[in-house]
Design brief:
This protein has three helices and six strands, in the order E-E-E-H-E-H-E-H-E. It is of the alpha/beta class and 128 residues long. Helix 1 packs parallel to helix 2.
């Protein structure tokens, strides 16, 4: 299975989905013109990854900001990961990175953590 990467832009995050290592990463800002269109290939990749998942899958979310439409897409991404985790094929862990003084991002991570039944780790970082 191919890895999936997208270079980030001022409006879209860097996306690194690595089937070889089982590490999936979103990093940067997520305020695309059309969130659904932007996240669709990510969903499709996760659907395919289900067939060849590594025993452990690590998801690193390192976002400095995301808009409302992205928040729904990120939730849908997490729901796919929850299904993957529940399939028994892989153990998914989500690492939610946030800056120490960014209470909004911490709260967003805690909100996702309350909705999704996947192990979540809150990771404080110096600066994103």
């Amino acid at each position: 299975m191919d890895n999936f990467t997208l270079e980030g832009s001022p409006k879209t995050p860097v996306v690194n989905l690595n089937a070889t290592s089982g590490v999936l990463e979103l990093k940067g800002r997520s305020i695309p013109e059309n969130s659904i269109e932007f996240y669709k290939p990510i969903y499709d990749w996760v659907d395919n990854y289900m067939q060849v998942a590594k025993p452990e899958t690590t998801v690193n979310i390192v976002l400095e900001y995301f808009n409302t439409s992205s928040s729904k897409c990120i939730l849908d991404f997490f729901k796919k990961l929850e299904n993957l985790n529940n399939s028994g094929k892989t153990k998914v862990t989500i690492n939610w990175h946030y800056e120490e003084d960014d209470e909004d991002m911490l709260e967003a991570g805690e909100d996702y953590q309350a909705i999704i039944s996947v192990p979540f780790k809150m990771v404080v970082v110096e600066e994103i």
